[in-house]
Structure formats: C-alpha cells, structure tokens
Amino acid sequence: MSATEHAVEMTRVAAEAALGKLGEDLVAFDVSEQLAIADVFLIVSGHNERQVGAIVDAIQDALIDRGEKVLRREGQGGNHWVLLDYGDLVVHVFRTDDRANYALERLWRDCPEIPLPQETPTAREQN
C-alpha cells in the first residue's frame, strides 16, 4: 500500500505554500506502510521563529483554500517545531537548528520519498 493520490496532492500544495515563504530542505516520506495514522510526513525548515510561523500560516491557508481542515496543530507557542495534522498528511515545520537536533529524516529514511518541487512556481517561471 502507498500514499493515496489525495495525500500526495495535499503534500504538493503544502510544499508549494512552504516554498512561497522560502521554506527550505523540503522532504516528504510515504509512511503509509509503517503507520496507520497518516500517509505522508512533510518536513520543512525555516531560519527563525517568524519564518516558521509564516510557513505554517501559508500551508494552512493553501490547504483551507482546497477545503482541507487541520485536525490538530501543536507547537505554535515558540515556533521552533510546529506540527500540522491533516489526517492523511502530517506537516512538521522546524526552525533549522531544531530540525537538525530531532533528525526526523533519520527515523523515516527507509520510507519512500515523494518527489517535491524545490523552488516556488514564480522562481521557476523566471528561469
């Protein structure tokens, strides 16, 4: 079993939104075989608390525009690590230093990666 098309599409929408706020080092893992609670984990970095907050807000806005509602949001107090749970998709937005400390990629490295855009649509159009 692999991630549903719906989960992959949500992931791409979230990734585009994160890139629009200059999120970095985006990686998405298909965790559907290992977990019953989600299909995809998306991990994003921001340089500071303000940027993490902006990335989180952009992701939520983009997914709301597509009719998706966050089921749970955790960690917004300090904006060091914010988790957005959409059921099929779980988004982790880290401050760069905190991401290195928790190293979630190491935990999920055996899961297949989902290809993601690595630059904003606007940047692609300018190239």
TrEMBL record:
- Please provide the Gene Ontology terms (biological process) for this protein: cytosolic ribosome assembly; negative regulation of ribosome biogenesis; negative regulation of translation
Question: Could you tell me one molecular function GO term of this UniProt entry?
Answer: ribosomal large subunit binding
Q: Which SUPFAM superfamilies match?
A: Nucleotidyltransferase
Q: Which UniProt keywords apply?
A: Cytoplasm, Repressor, Translation regulation
Q: Which InterPro entries match?
A: Iojap/RsfS/C7orf30, NT_sf
Q: Name where it's found.
A: Cytoplasm
Q: Name one GO cellular component term.
A: cytoplasm
Gene3D superfamilies tied to this protein: Beta Polymerase, domain 2
Q: How does it assemble?
A: Interacts with ribosomal protein uL14 (rplN).
Known role: Functions as a ribosomal silencing factor. Interacts with ribosomal protein uL14 (rplN), blocking formation of intersubunit bridge B8. Prevents association of the 30S and 50S ribosomal subunits and the formation of functional ribosomes, thus repressing translation.
The family note in this entry says: Belongs to the Iojap/RsfS family.
The protein's name in its UniProt record: Ribosomal silencing factor RsfS
Write down the species.
Propionibacterium freudenreichii subsp. shermanii (strain ATCC 9614 / DSM 4902 / CIP 103027 / NCIMB 8099 / CIRM-BIA1)
